[in-house]
Every structure is written in structure tokens, then in C-alpha cells.
């Protein structure tokens, strides 16, 4: 683990976390939620990179989501809510398997041979896969939306050509599959009946998805051989910040802002991930990385622009 990350982890006093207070204004809470989503999910790629030093990929994804789901459900029981039906619970398990079991698991697996910034840029193609899935499901797609898909594929090609790692091709394919499963899971979430309480729905999705991932990982022989301070800190960060806090913040944005604002993390996360990868891991920021980042983010922005026109 890089020394700079170790020094940062040991320098975070617990009293800072316990003194955090929510803003009193509605606008301040939206700004805080955006900051949490941007920083938590943008830095999650670095945390996964560090955690993989001790945790196998599928077990890492399963355990952190399982424990986070249990934690969120425990918090939810302290509020007044209606328990979900068996059908809603089943549907939450299906969506969670797609988003957590397949998507997060494949992302961690692919990042064993792909850099943090590269992985974040490729995950930004989720809206493009969502466009294709919508077309297959019967929604009419404008020509400009297909242009956005083509731009995204071009950006991926440039990114892969500029990646000098030995296993970049296989890692790229795995991470693209993770993005595809995330888009498919999000599509199912908009079609299936889920618990009306967003807090409970989120807890069930990540908890059940994490449970399935953990069972598959254990059955497949994945084990934690040795656990150092760095990977343990990264695991706790992923569980508490990148899962529990980020999902709650994202749910708040979904309820109190437009989908365009809530989904703006697609633009910011790759920038955060590339910057952190360069500063802490010494990952090179090549010309191909910069060009592909611009092309892919432009394709995502174009997809959102057409989606906004359609909604208007």
C-alpha cells in the first residue's frame, strides 16, 4: 500500500467523523449529498485497488455490501415504515444481484489488471448501455442517441489502445460487463415493484445482493489469507462511505432533485478517480487517457441531453 495512503488513513481522527452536522437549509443538504456522491464513488476505485491487496474480488464486493445492507436495514427499523411484501423483497434481491453481485463483483475482478482512472472512465458508459437496453425494450431511440453510443465505443477503443498494462484487454472486457449489468439492473429497478420506502429498498438491494455474492465467493474458494491495515481501512471505507453513506445521499438526490442532477456523478467520478490514481498510485495520465476521457464524457453528456429533451 502506498505510504501516502497509510499516513492519510492513520491521520483521520474519529472525532472529526462524530462532529459532522447536516446543513440546516435544503440547498445545503443537496450540496452535501452531491459532494458525498462525487467524492465517495469517485474515490471508491482507489479504495478497491487497495482492498484487493488482501480481499479476493467477489468476496470484497459481497462482504462490504452485505454488512452495509444489514446496517442500513437496522437503521431503517428505527423509523416508521411498512415492511415489504415477499414479491417486493424478491424483486429487490433480483435488482441487488445485478447491481451488487454481478456489477460490483466484476468491477473488482477487472480492476486487478486495470488502473483506477481507466476503470472509472469505462464505468461512465453505463448511460450508453442503458440507451441500448431501452431500445431493445421497445423505447424509440433518436439518431443523436445512437451517435452518443458510437462516441462512447470510440472512447473505449482509444482508452484500450493507450493502456500499456499486460492484461488491459481482458480487464476492459470484464469492466464493460460490469457497466452492462449495472445498466440492466437499473432498468429492472424501474420496471419491478420494489419497497416504497427508499431506505428499506436500498438496504434490501445491497444486502441481498451482497449475500448472494458472498455465498458464491465462499463456494468458489475465495478466502482472505492475510489482512493488513491498508486493505482493512479501505474495506471499512468502502462499506461505510462508498456504500452506506453514498447510497443514502444518492437516494436523497433522486427524491429532491432532477435525474440529470442526481446522475451528474457520471461526469465527476472519472475525474476524481483519475486525479487520485495519479496522486497516490503514480498512475500515468497519458494523452490517450485524456482524449478518451473527453470523448466518453461527451457521449454521456449527449445521452443526458437527449434524455432531458425527451422528458421535456
Automatic annotation (TrEMBL):
Transmembrane segments: 30-52, 58-77, 89-111, 117-137, 144-162, 168-186, 198-220, 232-253, 260-279, 285-306
Keyword hit for Methyltransferase: no
Keywords, sorted A to Z: Membrane, Transmembrane, Transmembrane helix
Residue ranges annotated for the EamA domain, each copy included: 31-160, 170-304
Cellular localisation: Membrane
Main location: membrane
Organism superkingdom: Bacteria
Membrane topology: Multi-pass membrane protein
Keyword Transcription belongs to the record: no
GO cellular component terms attached to this protein's record: membrane
Family: Belongs to the EamA transporter family.
Protein name per the record: EamA family transporter
Amino acid at each position: 500500500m502506498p505510504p501516502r495512503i497509510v499516513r492519510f488513513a492513520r491521520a483521520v481522527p474519529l472525532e472529526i467523523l462524530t462532529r459532522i452536522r447536516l446543513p440546516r437549509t435544503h440547498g445545503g443538504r443537496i450540496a452535501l449529498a452531491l459532494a458525498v456522491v462525487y467524492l465517495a464513488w469517485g474515490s471508491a476505485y482507489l479504495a478497491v485497488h487497495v482492498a484487493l491487496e488482501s480481499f479476493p474480488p467477489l468476496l470484497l464486493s459481497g462482504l462490504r455490501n452485505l454488512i452495509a445492507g444489514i446496517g442500513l436495514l437496522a437503521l431503517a427499523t428505527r423509523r416508521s415504515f411498512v415492511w415489504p411484501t415477499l414479491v417486493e423483497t424478491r424483486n429487490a434481491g433480483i435488482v441487488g444481484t445485478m447491481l451488487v453481485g454481478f456489477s460490483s463483483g466484476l468491477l473488482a475482478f477487472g480492476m486487478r489488471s486495470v488502473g483506477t482512472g481507466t476503470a472509472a472512465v469505462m464505468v461512465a458508459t453505463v448511460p450508453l448501455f442503458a440507451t441500448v437496453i431501452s431500445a431493445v425494450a421497445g423505447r424509440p431511440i433518436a439518431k443523436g442517441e445512437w451517435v452518443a453510443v458510437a462516441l462512447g465505443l470510440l472512447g473505449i477503443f482509444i482508452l484500450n489502445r493507450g493502456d500499456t498494462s499486460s492484461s488491459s484487454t481482458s480487464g476492459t472486457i470484464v469492466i464493460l460487463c460490469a457497466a452492462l449489468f449495472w445498466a440492466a439492473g437499473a432498468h429492472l429497478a424501474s420496471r419491478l415493484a420494489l419497497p416504497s420506502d427508499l431506505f428499506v429498498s436500498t438496504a434490501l438491494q445491497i444486502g441481498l445482493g451482497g449475500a448472494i455474492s458472498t455465498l458464491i465467493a465462499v463456494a468458489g474458494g475465495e478466502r482472505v489469507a492475510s489482512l493488513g491495515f491498508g486493505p482493512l481501512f479501505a474495506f471499512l471505507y468502502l462499506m461505510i462511505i462508498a456504500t452506506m453513506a453514498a447510497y443514502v445521499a444518492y437516494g436523497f438526490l433522486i427524491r429532491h432533485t432532477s435525474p440529470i442532477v442526481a446522475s451528474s456523478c457520471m461526469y465527476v467520478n472519472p475525474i476524481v478517480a483519475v486525479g487520485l490514481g495519479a496522486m497516490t498510485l503514480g498512475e500515468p495520465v497519458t494523452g490517450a487517457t485524456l482524449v478518451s476521457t473527453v470523448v466518453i464524457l461527451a457521449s454521456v453528456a449527449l445521452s443526458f441531453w437527449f434524455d432531458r429533451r425527451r422528458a421535456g
